Amino acid sequence: MTATAAGTTAGPRTGSGLTVSGMRVSFDIGSRGPFRGRKLLRAVNGISFGVEAGKTLGVVGESGSGKSSAALAALRLNPLEAGTVHLGDTDITSLAPRQLTAARPRMQIVFQDPYASLDPSMRVGQLLAEPLVVHGSVASAAERERRVTQALESVGLRAAHAARYPHEFSGGQRQRIAIARAMITRPEFVVLDEPVSALDVSTQSQIVNLLKQIQRESGTTFLFVSHDLAIVRIISHRTAVMYLGEIVEEGPSAELYDRPAHPYTAALISAGLSADPDSASTRERIILRGDIPNHIDPPPGCRFHTRCPAAMDVCREKAPEAVPTESGGTVRCHLHTEGPRLDGRTVLPVLAGGTDPARS
Question: Which PROSITE patterns does the record associate with it (predicted)?
Fold first, then answer.
């Protein structure tokens, strides 16, 4: 590519770090009967995490884990029941509506489905110019055209593509357009919500490489949401694993993938959610029993104990506290403080039925 990321040559913003503290997100799902009152589905249950400026945090988990709800809440596209979100020094949660609108160019999103996220009635050039018009950041039509051309070239497309409609492009090309649209305002922070899950494997690789290049050139901070640990390992500097609205493990991506400290993380890798077969082939298959519990009435204690192959009595009685892992992350699992007392080491030997090598 000859241009830098989506129009970042003229005074780009630098990425800002994201800090989330005590985030809770609930949805009112209505009454369960005339005398039972309202019911709340708590999608995100008091999580805290941070993303270093210019880096990528991957958030992974099964469907219903709360990962997308948390990501949208970080942009205030979902309402927060509690907690705070800071983008750099700005408290996003305290912004009034007009202030939030003014802050939107600083934080953008790329959605999962490139077929649904682009207005089919608009030409690509109009789609890309729209954020510049809405936010009034570029008054000159000539400058908007220049920025649109620059944005297209930065994602591997040509200036001539601005005159075409979305239906004239492949899925991968449409996602490139969606990325260009997100980056054209020169954001400090971008949520990537399952941006490659609707694409074939070869196109997934191209988009991941494009995102990595954009980040190198722009310094933008990314929150990458996915069910695919293998892709997250490639693109993310750190990974947070969510289960039933809570973060159960967080740490450097490569280390978390190779030496998971939580049984759920190990199970995700084992189950082959597009996991690297060379890595997974040396591990015992971990079968999770049962179904994901009800979000409205989650189980007591550790929320994962109903499916965990290594659950102990204490897991049913109290929720685990976060403890540090040997890789520089945190894990919430009683196996690290009770029973085998792993003290932050990998859980794989326990799940395989062996002994912890550090204890033998």
Answer: ABC_TRANSPORTER_1, ABC_TRANSPORTER_2
Q: How far is CA 82 from the centre of its chain?
A: 20
How far CA 15 is from CA of 20, 36, 54, 183, 250, in Å, comes to 16, 47, 5, 12, 22
Please report which residue ranges of the chain form alpha helices under DSSP H: 67-74, 97-103, 124-134, 141-154, 171-183, 201-218, 229-235, 253-258, 263-270, 277-280, 313-317, 348-351
Residue ranges in the chain whose pLDDT is less than 70: 1-14, 31-37, 272-284, 354-360
Distances from the Cα of 179 to the Cα of 152, 212, 220, 330, angstroms: 10, 12, 12, 32
CB neighbours (10 Å) of residue 182? 24
In the CATH hierarchy, which fold is given to the domain comprising 18-25+40-241?
Rossmann fold (3.40.50)
Tokens of 271: 């189950």
Which helix (DSSP H) or strand (DSSP E) does residue 247 occupy?
strand 246-252
| DSSP label at residue 204 | H
Nearest of 225, 220, 212 to residue 105 by alpha carbon: 220
The residue ranges of every structural domain in the chain are 18-25+40-241, 261-276+283-352
Instruction: List, edge to edge, every strand of the sheet that includes 189-193.
Output: 107-110, 189-193, 221-226, 56-60, 238-243, 246-252, 330-332, 322-324
Distance between CA 172 and CA 196 in Å, rounded? 9
Q: Are 25 and 44 in contact (CB under 8 A)?
A: yes
Q: Which of 322, 344, 350 is nearest to 49 (CA)?
A: 322
Residue 187, classified by CB atoms within 10 Å of its CB into exposed (0-12), middle (13-18) or buried (19+), is buried
Q: Which of helix, strand or coil describes residue 278?
A: helix
Ordered DSSP codes for 71-134: HHHHTTSS--SEEEEEETTEEGGG--HHHHHHHGGGEEEE-S-TTTSS-TTS-HHHHHHHHHHH
353 closest CA partner among 291, 285, 275, 303: 285
pLDDT in tens, 92-139: 999 999 999 999 999 999 999 888 999 999 999 999 999 999 988 787
